[in-house]
Amino acid sequence: MFDIDWYKRIAQTAEKGKFDMIFFADLLHLIYPSRAAAGMLDPVSLLSALSMVTDKIGLTATLSTTYNEPRRLSTLDHISGGRTGWNIVTSQVDTEARNFGRDKHPEHGTRYEMAQEFVDVVTALWDSWPQNSLVMNRASGTFVDESKLRVADYKGKWYSTQGLLNVPSPPQGYPVFIQAGSSDPGQDFAAKVGEVIFTAQTSLAAA
Ligand SMILES: Cc1cc2nc3c(=O)[nH]c(=O)nc-3n(C[C@H](O)[C@H](O)[C@H](O)COP(=O)(O)O)c2cc1C
Q1: Residue 98: CA atoms inside 13 Å, Cβ hemisphere, count?
Q2: Does 105 map to a domain?
Q3: 62-76: b or e for each residue (b if 16 or more CB lie within 10 Å)?
Q4: Whose CA is closest to 170, among 24, 59, 11, 29?
Q5: What is the DSSP letter of 91?
Q6: Among the listed residues 66, 71, 33, 39, the one whose alpha carbon sits nearest the alpha carbon of residue 152
Q7: pLDDT surpasses 70 at 36
Q8: Which of 35-39, 52-56, 71-75 has the largest mean confidence?
Q9: Cα of 88 to ligand 1 centre, how many Å?
Q10: Coil, helix or strand for 8?
């Protein structure tokens, strides 16, 4: 499971079988010692490699809104020619928080509040350097039409930015948004942002 050839085989088989996408889960800690087999490679690096050995299949990475940066998926969307999906999760436990310099993982409702803000900030940053601003005219010496740049001037409760991202907007505009919230705030968030909803149900009644 730490061998890229194994993933390559899976991705190419799924593509040959006409699947729409492959998706990699991500946890930000190792459940040790009981479930060390839940170790996993970083999905963005993994999918960057797989984007070079596939042509069509969608490539979905899980990235936590609680512990992340906006730039990474934008780059993957460029590398893969617009095949990126984002499984938007909020992470789950204190051991993940401790890997990122915090003592406690934020409580459930707060996490979803943060997640909505994170999506707002990230999309503002992705929009800040639109594709159509790229002129790249050597003769005139114009690289970018600066009148089309939009500084992401965002100040929220949890995140703020006053930035232009240094990566032009993703080829798809945004990656495909996937959400798997099943609590009340989770379902609200999923209904707002999700283009694909993941759901795992253990009984027909609950489903
Ligand atoms: C198919 C599926 C995949 C998921 N993948 C991840 C994951 O990779 N990482 C993660 O932290 N949570 C993952 N989750 C958990 C969800 O993000 C969410 O926390 C969970 O469904 C509980 O919903 P709630 O947060 O609204 O309580 C996944 C859930 C489902 C159903």
Answers
A1: 5
A2: yes
A3: bbbbbbbebebbbeb
A4: 59
A5: -
A6: 71
A7: no
A8: 52-56
A9: 9
A10: helix
Q: What's the CATH code of the domain at 101? A: 3.20.20.30
Ligand 1 centroid from CA 180, angstroms: 5
Q: Distance from first CA to last CA of the chain, Å, rounded?
A: 32
Total domains in the fold of the chain = 1
Indicate whether 207 belongs to any domain. Answer: no
Q: What is the 3-state secondary structure (H, E, C) of 107-140?
A: CHHHHHHHHHHHHHHHHHHHHHCCHHHEEEECCC
Q: What is the DSSP letter of 82?
A: S
Q: What is the DSSP string of 145-203?
A: -GGG---EEEE-SS-EEEE--SSPPPTTSSPEEEE---SHHHHHHHHHH-SEE----SS
Instruction: Please list every protein residue whose CB sits less than 6 Å from any atom of ligand 1.
Output: 25-27, 62, 87, 89, 91-92, 180-183, 186, 198-200
Does any domain span residue 202? Answer: no
- Domain-located, residue 44: yes
- pLDDT per position as a tens digit, 109-127: 999 999 999 999 999 999 9
Note down the domain range covering 184. Answer: 4-197
Give the single-character DSSP code of 105. P
